[in-house]
Amino acid sequence: MHFELNGEQQQLADAIRRWIGRDYGFETRRAIVHSESGVSPEAWATMVELGLTALPVPEEHGGFGGDALSMFAVMQELGRGLVVEPYVATVLGAEFLRRGGKHGALLERVAAGEAKLACALGERQSRHDAFDVATRAEAVDGGYRLHGEKRVVLHGGEADALIVSARSAQCAVGLGSAASVDSVQDMDGVSLFVVPRDSAGLRVKGYRTLDGLRAASVVLDGVMVGPDAVIGRVEEGGAILDAALDYGAGLLCAEALGMMQALFDTTLEYLKTRQQFGAPIGKFQALQHRMADMAIHLEQARSMALLAALALARSGGGAGGDLATRRRVVSAAKYRVGLAARFIGQGAIQLHGGMGVTDELPASHYFKRLSMIELTLGDMDHHLERFIAQPGFREAA
Length: 397
What we know:
Blueprint: H1 7-23, H2 26-33, H3 41-49, H4 68-80, H5 87-100, H6 104-111, E1 117-120, E2 136-140, E3 143-154, E4 161-168, E5 190-196, E6 202-208, E7 214-225, E8 230-231, H7 238-273, E9 275-276, E10 279-280, H8 285-314, H9 323-352, H10 362-375, H11 380-389, H12 393-396
Parallel strand pairs: 1-4, 2-4
Antiparallel strand pairs: 2-3, 3-7, 4-5, 5-8, 6-7, 9-10
GO molecular function, one term: flavin adenine dinucleotide binding
Domain Acyl-CoA dehydrogenase/oxidase C-terminal: 237-383
Domain Acyl-CoA dehydrogenase/oxidase N-terminal: 8-101
């Protein structure tokens, strides 16, 4: 698929690349990953200055109202630079708030870089099913009381507020060790809440993930929130959750694309400089064939990631249009990008030889992050099943 960024998108992408090349090189990134916090306040301040936090926020809330194509350009560059700051988590959280239409003040803080967000959606039993929600929201005087536990919350420890999915007490009656899992696997009845980081009863335990980012386990032990904490309407958060996660999957596809391009370029340069038997190993035909296969995977992944970004942009990030088409395109992109990430990642490691798995080379870091992206917001098997389940597939087959 042939696609060119417009002038503003290209200027922003160039600015991000210059910043990363100047101030966020590989050694700087390694130092940030191994620091106590795992993130850099200086890097976050630069991202705010570049307008990245304001880009996806609607104009009425102090942002630029950038669509999925603008975010595609940004995420490619952040992926290329292996940036570990809590940007994806915050942007995805902002997408939930935008769809809910009630939290303009918080969105303004996000646009200004004054607030970071995280999405507490996954649970012990849910795996890739975001609608498998056992966390309970009990209606009480003055609001709701939340009980439950969330797992692998990306940048949960760095967030100022969490987006939490839960079911009402009525829908969750009888949820115990012997309860049927099917009783909580339903798109209907899901509510979404904004939970401030300093809420009483909220426990967050952060840790570093395989790819150098940060995640957290979150326990909600009777956390009290007011009625204004609800995103959208009570028990009608399923549609928001579905569309926002498709938006997030599109962001991850773009990030992975930037990483695969950088990994491909790094490997190609290595083949040109590594000498064996008195010649660069890039002259060996078998290795040229491997690079050609990697290039094909890269271009196919690029086409599908762009198709997903276009579909999300045309539907306002997934809010309108044909839901089946949006789901089908996003799942196809997530599957194809995951397939390419696995092939290119494994190929790059093999072509680098033993050095490919060392911490000193960027190749291993790209491969780790690509592997984590494949498992985030649904792995390849999950999205293949979702693609097949969309209306019209079996009839066409």
